[in-house]
Amino acid sequence: MLYLTEPESLGDLLPNEPSYRTNQLRDWLYTTPVLTANEMTNLPKPLRDAIDPQHWPFDLDIEQTADRGQTKKWLFRCKDGSPIESVLMGYANRTTLCISSQVGCAMGCTFCATGQFGFDRHLDAGEITAQVAYANAFLATTPLPRSPERVTNVVFMGMGEPLANYRNTTESLRRMIEVMGISARSITVSTVGFVPGMWKLIEEPWPVNLAVSLHSTIPSERTKLVPINKRYPIDDVVEAALAYYKAKGRRISLEWTLIADENDSDEEAVGLARIARYLSAHVNVIELNPTPLSMDRPPDHDHVRRFVGTLKREGANVTLRDTRGQDIDAACGQLRLRAASTRDPQDG
Ligand code: SAH
Ligand code: SF4
To answer: 3-state SS of the chain?
Structure first.
């Protein structure tokens, strides 16, 4: 599989070809990606035919469209049958791809479809990077209406906890930034608060953005929603986030999935605003997208407004995030759940 090989080692796969072929191939994979090897027009036809089955580390299983064509959701299947979800979102001045870092997730957040599924395996650095390359190959022939024709922003907010798959996540960052040329400042790693990974990320050379999924500031409540809080308590998460902000000068964002009667009280809003002020962070509030395996629901709109109003009054910078692609189950892990429930189990 071409993307499973380091970009610098592609030559090993072409021992009988002149070295400029390696550069041509690397460009087709990372600089100007194409959906099929047959479109790699400066490679000889026999070579295109030979590499075609090795091209992508996954096949497209399901493609869905929402928001009048501005949102695309893909469910890919790896060669071992593992699902990978990516969501492409077009805006006026940016095209953002939300990518997965693991198949499933071991963190077990109760409200998250991926967490409910449990952990299967890490994604390889190539499987992470290939999601971005695929989106660029797709956009080259089918751009989203009124949005940049390349991926300008990447967020690690699909399936998985990227910092629990540290080596592959950082190797994929290296490929995106140093080989594909995506600006580190346009990439956001989202973490549930995997503290050792947060400290390690400080040591990496790139100023990527860090989003921290808090969901509660009350330790017992946070442990209920985010079980890993037991191992990495919120105070340690906040200290690591502060260190990241100081080291990189990149404003932290705090993610808050708002759930009725769980984390939507005034007390939570006040506590969240206090942490946001302490970190000079930006708060993103997102209404829960209900999942089949949980009774949790988002609060009604008045209550959401009240929560956001309290945050603002308490001095927090806050955005109520739009819930892109709700009609296509675009939240974390949900397309996969649907695929699983509509598929004959024997189909794999
Ligand atoms: N594991 C990382 C990144 C993937 S989850 C993390 O937790 O940050 C990305 C974001 O999706 C998180 O902020 C998470 O809280 C949010 N999310 C998960 N399930 C959701 C749901 N059902 N509705 C709304 N947001 C959800
Ligand atoms: Fe994992 Fe993030 Fe889902 Fe929690 S919210 S289970 S950390 S993917």
So the answer is: CHHHCCHHHHHHHCCCCCHHHHHHHHHHHHHCCCCCHHHCCCCCHHHHHHHHHHCCCEEEEEEEEEHHHCEEEEEEEECCCCEEEEEEEECCCCEEEECCCEEECCCCCCCCHHHHHCEEEECCHHHHHHHHHHHHHHHHHCCCCCCCCCCCEEEECCCCCHHHCHHHHHHHHHHHHHHCCCCHHHEEEEECCCHHHHHHHHCCCCCCEEEEECCCCCHHHHHHHCHHHHCCCHHHHHHHHHHHHHHHCCCCEEEEEECCCCCCCHHHHHHHHHHHHHHCCEEEEEECCCCCCCCCCCCCHHHHHHHHHHHHHCCCEEEECCCCCHHHCCCCCHHHHHHHHHCCHHHC
